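debug: dumping io for the single-chain case to check the tokenizer round-trip. Nothing else runs in this session.
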Amino acid sequence: MFSLGMISQTVTVELGDRSYPIWIGRELLAHAGSLCVEQGLSGLCMIVSDSHVAPLYMAACKGALEGAGFAVETALVPAGEPSKSQQQLFALYDQALACGLDRKSIVVALGGGVIGDLAGYLAASYLRGIRFVQIPTSLLAMVDSSVGGKTGINLPQGKNLVGAFHQPEAVCADMDVLRTLPRREYVSGLAEVVKYGVIYDAEFFGFLEECADGLLACDLDVVSRVVARCCEIKAEVVRQDEREAGLRAILNFGHTLGHAIENAGGYGVYLHGEAVAMGMAYAAWVSVRETGLQEADARRIVRLLRRLELPVEMPACRWEDLQRAMTLDKKVSGGVPRFVLAETLGVVNVSCTVEERALRQVYETINESLREFHDGSE
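debug: decoded output
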């Protein structure tokens, strides 16, 4: 039987009759089936995973679900951002039909953000919507993409341009799986962690500065606390604004340029968190110019990103390519990119529009400013 002692914390996303738990703890994967049963789930399920995660965790997940009475089918996609595509989605539709999934069945997303988004959109759109469970295996997915119900795929023109809001039945975040996460993937997830401190909680930002070494070392006691706080913040934001009519847009800090870097650089060249880290460094410097962020706070943001081994210098992308990609972003209004900019640590302003000339000037001069900052401060 499952021991509650294995759960270090449960965060609830409060959405009325669609509320659901986020379980955070150790050794949870082996008990995923029992947890799902306690959540009232049963029947046929299809685990969707990728070619990197499945060899590590598919057997354990399948065994846990079967041991709790579920009938289990499995589906695999290639690892990486390119799998968030129309082709992979339609291949999963074919597998779901072949497996006999019906409206009472469940999709289980076992993987990182790509799998969560792709499998989540499969669940949102198949038979007009069936239930699904998130079992995130990356830090980025645990703190961000598995929570809040955003699902979708990319188009060649841009990231997440097709999707739906579809909340999971539960999120099961087993800290132990982070032990096998490639270091680059783990560090990439730290960008989203830093984001929460910037947009919502200055005290949490200070805690991240204090525990940066433990985070880098993947000290699971530290990581569990950090994951729980990130989930608390996102759950509160989603409770107030599930469909991004206002407040939820704060979660896009660093993402306007970040998504453009992913697109212009070619999906898969930069990991999502790497692109977001560059986007946050850029947004911090734009914030100094446009919304009154103190330069000292912008430097703290950049310094923390650097301490966590995240990139902050802008990539070798032409501004014209980035600008074109930003105009195709789903956050565009009237063809004008919208930015989330910081007023101070913990407080941001959503939907800022900035003159293109100013945006370009910051982009073209930021690397030199960052080099001067690095040479003079560290």
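debug: round-trip ok. The chain is about 50% helix and 20% strand.
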